[in-house]
Design a protein that fits this description.
alpha/beta, Peroxisomal Thiolase, Chain A, domain 1, five-stranded mixed beta sheet, Thiolase-like, ACP_syn_III_C, ACP_syn_III_N, acyltransferase, 3-oxoacyl-ACP synthase
Amino acid sequence: MSEEMQQPAVSLLDVSTYLPGEPIGADYYAQFAGSDDLRDNLMFRAPKFRHHVAPDETAIDMVERAAAGIVDRHGSDVLANVDVLITHTQLPDMPFYGGGGGMANRLGMKPNWVIDLHNGGCAAFILGLKLARQLLASGEGRTALVAVAQNAAGQVFDQATIRPKAQASVPGDGAAVGLVALSDVSPILDVECRTYGEYAGDMTMAVDPPRKWWQAGPGEGCIGFTESKITKVLARGNRQVPEVAYAVCDRIGLAPKDIGLLVTNQPNRVFLRNWREALELPAERHRDTFEECGNLFAAGVPINLDRAIDDGQVKKGDIVMMAAFAHAGDFAGAAAVRWGGQR
């Protein structure tokens, strides 16, 4: 019997999400818009709306609020019995450690494993699924929770000197949790994760006057974009997301055109269009909330999946393909799940 046949089935049983505050319209940023060399770049065409984390709202608060749907549908015991907690926070509340321990405490968990991920970036939910699947299949527990929080929009991109920049109007905040368990209800069929170390470091912080991110100084930090960097990121993202999705399709014997629903991260409209065209999928089989939420970074994949489930866009037996790339292209991942139709 093959190793694949011997490995127990691991399922993504449910997702639950949270968007902070009321929607913030594009006119909010329009009032601050300044002269910016990148103002007309396709990367930075603003969505109609986005959400911002509240000034006193922590990543732990966001994950607790995202988990409310899991508790409502499965009871509080399902969290109390979680064996593995995997977390990712875009902007950690403290720079020296991740939020996993605080999240476990807030959610009433005593997990055997608490793992904070940072390298996964916008593909962190997929990396979390891969890790959860491997740990549960190897006997390290029966249930895992993957929790992601995107909280940089209202904290980094809404700084007074950053608001006028073109990049500021695109990000939005949100959080999500995914419940993973030993089960064949909604099996994770395959996961592909790839690290492109040659691009590590291409995403940088820009501060004027220049300083290290942790040093005191007058300038507020943002992402260091240039026309040259944007051209490279566009090329990498356009290539990497279809590549990892195709790799998963090949291994599970699925033609890309037969994907039931494609769920990706959503940096901008250009990537969304290019990815579905590369996989030969119509727009109605590629879920995105870009106009309502903007670029949700790591929270984009689970938030879009949650919306698709609620709307009935994904049905029992459909194969959901999740795919994303991170940062300036140093990581990408894809995961296929046969949705079981239960909540």
